[in-house]
Write a structure and sequence with these properties.
Blueprint lengths: L1 E5 L3 H12 L3 E5 L3 H8 L10 H8 L4 E4 L2 H7 L2 E4 L14 H13 L4 E5 L7 H12 L6 E5 L9 H6 L3 E5 L3 H11 L5 E5 L1 H32 L3 H9 L18 H16 L5 H24 L8 E5 L14 H11 L3 E5 L15 E2 L3 H5 L4 E4 L4 H4 L3 H5 L6 E4 L6 H9 L3 E3 L7
The structure holds uridine-5'-diphosphate-glucuronic acid.
Length: 435
């Protein structure tokens, strides 16, 4: 099949690369020529494990990247739309990039096409796309629209793509459904065929539910600290019940990243417009914001409120491990709060560069863990990078000013924590009640 993928963010590039890897002829399109040049040189414009390797084994064979959307539309039978749909401050979804792509399709369409919307779009958007093409642009050629929401995670996008739990296909056209099913067949997965609105809602509801699961376990973790229970074992015990499941029950600093925050706010906004209450999702977001403050309160408490001019070392800036994405990362808010309290900040992250942190102003950017721990009063783990699991705390204690660790990701087992405490550290995790 001749496929074009429009929008080379992490969803678009992963989709293009993996669809080419299973034998399709794929062209990836982006209006950013620099990005296209970079990808054509075999370089991924962001950090995503395994993606570069698969890109390089397919590029120039059946996988090409161009900035010419006209050519891409004319040369392909199926177009995946994977452009960004950010939200405004008020929670409204900005669909301008979708509109732009649809205008181009309307202009350059030259025969039957299947238009597949992968970007997360407001409920009703796929119908609008049909409307624009048919009634506004008055397209003369046949086309079908399919809603095919994306469930990939940053940091494990390739693994997720080759092990997808399901493919949701929202469409009322049998021919288009069959074409999209054919594309996904090699992934050996389950299909759910629905209407447009249902497919669009599945994406929002899934992200809202996952975010709610995290906020729920974070509230339980906060309670565990007060009643002397251990949240890791609580989550394990809950997860052993198949009705609950083990995933997304890791307590910590709360969720970050652009997706959960964006999609929950969009969903709450949609619910307001149609006068439906969505209290749980809205609360999940509020609980998540508070979880960041809880970490700051812990720092204040463990330093006995003597925080002014003390040094805090932030270990991990990205919103999760295995990505370079710092959008809505808990670390950013926490650093801002600590700076308000007049603490000095040192940071270390294995992948983030200094340039990404320039909005934070006066912070000390360190090149390795030990440089960041030198002279510090409190080490705060905010991303679960593997590297942090192997820190030599014996070595660190000789260079730290005070021996205090706040583990916002619960990266250590109880046995490891015991060893750390034996070295003379004060240790505080989330929902573990150990000091
Ligand atoms: C999320 C969804 O998981 C994907 O299915 C979806 O496709 C994607 O959003 C999207 O809409 O594009 P992503 O944001 O990349 O994926 O990453 P997640 O692995 O879901 O993690 C989100 C945040 O939740 C991270 O900050 C992570 O550290 C946190 N998290 C996750 C927890 O605090 N606890 C957990 O148990 C799991």
């Amino acid at each position: 099949m001749k496929i074009s993928v429009i929008g080379m963010g992490y969803v678009g590039l992963t989709t293009a690369v993996c669809l080419a890897d299973i034998g399709n002829e794929v062209v990836g399109v982006d209006s950013n020529i620099e990005k296209i040049k970079q990808i054509n040189n075999g370089v991924i414009p962001f950090f995503e494990p395994q993606l570069g390797e698969i890109l390089n084994r397919n590029i120039n064979n059946n996988l090409n990247f161009i900035d010419d959307i006209e050519k891409a539309i004319k040369d392909s039978d199926i177009m995946f739309i994977t452009v960004g749909t950010p939200i405004s401050e008020t929670g409204e979804v900005d669909t301008s990039q979708i509109y732009e792509v649809v205008q181009s399709i309307g202009k350059y369409i030259n025969g039957y096409k299947v238009i597949v919307t992968k970007s997360t779009v407001p409920i009703g958007m796929n119908n609008k796309i049909i409307n624009i093409l048919k009634n506004e642009i008055k397209v003369q050629h046949n086309f079908d629209v399919v809603s095919n929401p994306e469930f990939l995670r940053e940091g494990s996008a390739v693994v997720d793509m080759f092990n997808m739990d399901r493919v949701v296909i929202g469409s009322n056209c049998k021919k288009a459904i069959e074409i999209v099913q054919e594309i996904y067949k090699p992934f050996d997965t389950k299909f759910l065929i629905t209407g447009f609105e249902t497919a669009e809602m599945i994406k929002y509801a899934s992200n809202a539910f996952l975010a709610t699961k995290i906020s729920f376990i974070n509230e339980i973790a906060n309670l565990c600290e007060k009643v002397n229970a251990d949240v890791l074992s609580v989550a394990m015990g809950m997860g052993m019940d198949r009705r609950i499941g083990t995933e997304f029950l890791k307590a910590g600093v709360g969720y970050g990243g652009s997706c959960f925050h964006k999609d929950i706010n969009a969903l709450v906004n949609i619910s307001k417009m149609v006068n439906a209450d969505l209290e749980i999702a809205a609360t999940a977001e509020r609980v998540n914001n508070n979880q960041r403050k809880k970490i700051v309160q812990k720092i204040e408490k463990i330093l006995e409120n003597d925080v002014r001019d003390k040094t805090a070392t932030i270990l991990g800036i990205t919103f999760k491990a295995n990505t370079d994405d710092i959008r809505c990362a808990p670390s950013i808010d926490i650093i801002k709060m600590l700076k308000e309290m007049k603490m000095r900040i040192k940071v270390y992250d294995p992948i983030v560069n200094k340039e990404q942190l320039k909005e934070l102003g006066d912070i000390v950017f360190c090149k390795n863990v030990y440089e960041s721990l030198e002279g510090t009063d409190v080490a705060i783990v905010l991303t679960e990078w593997d590297e942090f699991k192997n820190i030599d705390w014996e070595k660190a204690k000789k260079i730290m000013n005070q021996k205090i660790i706040i583990d916002g990701r619960n990266i250590y087992s109880l046995n490891e924590i015991k060893e750390i405490i034996k070295l003379g550290y004060k240790y505080n995790g989330v929902g573990r009640n150990i000091v």
